[in-house]
Here is the input.
Amino acid sequence: MPRAIKGALVKCDPSIRALILKIDAESHDIVIEELDDTHLVVDQNRIPFVKAELARILAQNSYNPLDEDEA
Amino acid sequence: MDAIADRAFQEKQHNVSQDETPSLLAVVIDTNPLEWTKLKGVICLKELCKSVLVLLNAHLSLNSGNRVAVLTSSSLNSGPKFLYPDPNDKTYEKRESLLSSDIHRQFKFVDQKIIQELQILLDNEPLNPENQELKGSIAGAMSMALSYINRLTNIEPESTGNTLRAKMLVISISDDSTQQYVPFMNCIFSAQKMKVSIDVCKMGPDSSFLQQASDVTNGVYMLIKNVHGLIQYLTTALFIDPSLRPIMVLPTNSDLDFRASCFVTNKVIDIGYVCSVCLCIFSIIPRNNVCPTCQSKFDDAVVKKLRQKPIVIPLQKKKKLEDGVQRT
Amino acid sequence: MSDSSNLLKTTVNDYLENLPESVHNKLYQSSITCLAIFRLLPSLAKFYVMSLLFNEHSVSYIDLTRWIRPDNMTHLVSSSTKSSSSSAVTNFPGAIGKNKMYQNECLKRLKQLNLIKDVRKQWTNPNTGQLTNVVVLQLNPMFRKNFRNALTGSQMSNDLNNDIEMTDVEEVSEEFLDRYSLMKWENILHFMVGSEVPELPSIGVLSLLRHSGLMDIGEENEFIATPKRFKGDNMDLKSMKITQDGFQFLLQDINAQIWQLLLQYLRMSEKLMMNPVDVLNFIFMLGSLELGKQYPVTLLSDTQVIMLEDLVDYGLIYYPEKNRYFYPTRMATTLTSEKTTFKTASMSMNQVLEGGPEVKDHGSIVLETNFKLYCYTTSPLQIAILNLFVHLRTRFANMVTGMITRESVREALRNGITADQIIKYLETHAHSQMKKLAEEKLLKKLEFDSNATETQQIGSQVKLEVIPPTVVDQIKLWQLEMDRLQTFAGFLFKDFANAQEFEQLANYADEVGVMLWRDDDKRKFFVTEEGIGQLNDYANRLKRHRA
Here is the structure.
C-alpha cells in the first residue's frame, strides 16, 4: 500500500541542499526524505527555522561594509 | 547557475516603442519670388502655406513636447528670416511651454503668428523688382535653422534637462545654384554631425544638391509632380519622426549619381582638372584663370603649360619596303 | 524614465481598449479626446493613423507593412528598400523579428481602440485581371473627421476655452495653485508611507486607495515595515497599511501615479452609474486647460460637477466657492502630456518652500560604483521613500547620504519591492550630470563600434547606462539570493507495490495538475496540499474497482 507523508517539498540548487542537510545533521528532525539533487521533503513546521538558519549562514559569507563602521 | 544567466543579465533592449523624446521640426521654405512666378499655374505660395500649417499642427499633436520653427529663405527685401518663433520676442518660448497642453490654443497661436509674419514679409516686398538683387539663399536659411536647432538641442538641455531631437524639412522650388555649393555642403555636413535628418519636398526642377543633402543625413527626398496631394505627401512620407527612422524604410525617390561631374559644363567626366584650393572639378580650364567656386586665381605659368596644345611632330614618311631598299 | 511613462500608457491604454465600440465612437466625437488618445499611442501607430488620415481611400495592409524595414536577424537580410517584410530571410522558421512584432503590436492596439477596421475587399489585379482578396484598413470615420478638423483648425473648439474672459473674482496665482495641489498630493503619499500627516486624506481617497489595492485594512501586526503613528482612531480606513502594489506605486513618477488613481476612480464610477464617456471626456479636457485660469462650472454636465468635488481631494482642482468657478492645477494640466520632466512632487515642493529660482537639476540622486548614494533633497517624502531601500546615514541641510547595502535591499525585497522597481526609481531620479556622463560614454562607444565593425551583432547592443552596471547587477543578484529556496506544502507518495499502481496514481495526478515532483525509478511523487483530496478519492475508486 502506498503511503502518503505530509511535508513540504523544497526545491533548491545543490549547494543549498547541502547546507540544509548540514543544518539537519545537528537536530535530525528537519529533513523527512531526500528526493534528488535539487529536491528535499522537509517538515512543514521547521521551514521558518531553516530559512532563518540559511540566511544566517549565507550572511556570514557576505561582506557588509556597515559592520566595520559600527564596530 | 542558470538562474543568474537567465534573469539577472537579460539586457533590456532599447526599444523604439519606448522612445518618447520630443522633437523639433524646422521648416525652411524657399520664397524666391522669381521662381514662384515660374510656378504660377501650378501652385501658389498661399496653397503651400496652408499645407505647411496642417503639417505643423500634425507635428505638434504627436507629442506634447514637440516644437516647430519656420524660416523663409530669400526675398528681394531681406535675407533669410524666422517666421516662427519670432526672435525679437523673448517671451515666446516661455509661453509655448504653457500652451503645450492646450492643443487647440497652441495650433491657433502658431498658425496665426506664421500667417502674420508671412504677410509682413510679403507686404515689404518692392513692387518693381527690376534692379533689385535677390537676397538670401537656401543655404543661408538652412544654417540659421541649424544654429537654432543647435541651441535647442545642445545648449538649453544642459540647463533644463529636456532632451530634444530635431529634423529639418526643406521645401524648395528652385534649381541648384553652383555659387552656393560650398556653403551648402558645409550645412549638410554639420547637419550630419548633429544627427539632424534633412527631408526635402521638391517641386519644379530636380536638384542634385538637395538629393545629396537628404542622402547624407538619412532623410527623404521627394520630387512632387502632383501638387494637389501636397498635404498627403507632407503628412506621410515627409513626416517620419526621428525616433522611428531606424526601423522605417525611407521612401526617397532620388537616384543620386555619385559620379564626378564638371562644375562648369555639368558633364560627367573621368579625367579633368582640380582646383587646389576648393577641390572642385573642371573638364576645361575656366576663362580668366579664376576658379568659379572659390574665386582663387590660378598661377599663370602653370595654366599656360596646361593650355598648351601638345606639339604634333610631323609624321616622317617612311617609304614602304618593296623588293628593294627605298630611299627617303 | 521612459519605462514609467510607458507603464502609465499601458495602464491607460488597457482601460481604453476594454471599452466597447459604442463608447469609443462617442469618445471620438470630441476632438480633444481624439488628440489625447492619439498622443497615448506608440509612435508607429501614430504614423499609421496620420498616413490614413488624409487618404481618401483605404490602404491595403501590405502597403503599410512595406514601411517597416525588414529585420536583421543573425544573418544579414536582403537590403532592397521596398521588399515586403514577410520575405525576410530568417535564421529559424516561425521567428518574428523585433520590427515586425512592434508593428503587429501597434496594429493590434489600433484595432482594439476601434480606430482601424480591417475589411476584406476584392481588388482586380491590374496585370492579370484576376480578382484577389486583399486586406484593407480603414480609419474610424468619426475619428477621422474630428481629428482632421482639429488639425486644420476648421472646428471652433467647443470646449471651455473660448468662453472665458470674465474675471470678477480675483485670480489665483500659479504658485498658490502649485502649493495647494502638492500639499494635497503629498498628504496622500505621506499617508501611504506611514509618516505623520497634518490632516488625513478624505474618506473618498481612503476608500479609493483600498479598492485599488494600494493599501489594505489589516490586523495589528508587529512585522509591518512602517510603524503606524496615528493617534488611536477606531475607523479601519484610517489605519490601513501599505501593500506591495502600494510600494510599487510610490516608486513611480507623479504622472503615472495620478493616472493610476484616476483609472481606479473611473472603474469605481462605472459602478456608481456615472457615464464613463463623460468622465473620460472631462479628464482629457482637464489636460487641455490653461493653468491659472478660472473656468465657470456652468459649462459642465452633471456628472462632471460631481467629479469636480472628488477631484479636489487629489489636488487636481482648486474649487474655492462651490458652484461658481474652479481652477485646474498644474497636476491637471499636465495629465495628457508625456513630459517626464514634470517635476516630482518633492522637487516642486522644494522650490515652493525655498521660493528661490528654479532648481536646475531635475532628479538629484548621485550613485557611485561603491554603492554610496547622495541625494540632493529636503523633502521628507523623498527621504522616506529612499529609506525603503537605502541605508541612510547622514543628513545635511540640502542633502542626504547613505549606502545601498545588502541588508537595506533585502529589507525592501521582503516588503515586496522588486529589484526592477528600485533600479527604475534610481534611473528616473538620477542627477542630470549622471545622465550626461552616461550619454557621452554611450556616444563614444557607438562611434567606436561603427568605426570598428560594419555588421551589428545582436549580442553586443550598446545601451544607455545611467546607473553604474555594477550596482544594477548586484541589486538583481541580491533579489535572486532571496529565493534560493522554494517551498511547497503537500504530500509525498512512496512505497508503491508495483509499477502499475504507481503509474495509475501518478498519471492521474499529472492530468489533474497537482503534481509537483515525480521520480519514476524510485516510484515516488509529490503532490500539492489541495491535490491530496482528489488523489484519495481516485485511489478509493480504484480499490473499489478491484474489489
Summary: Chain C has 22 helices and 15 strands. The longest strand of chain C covers residues 116-124.
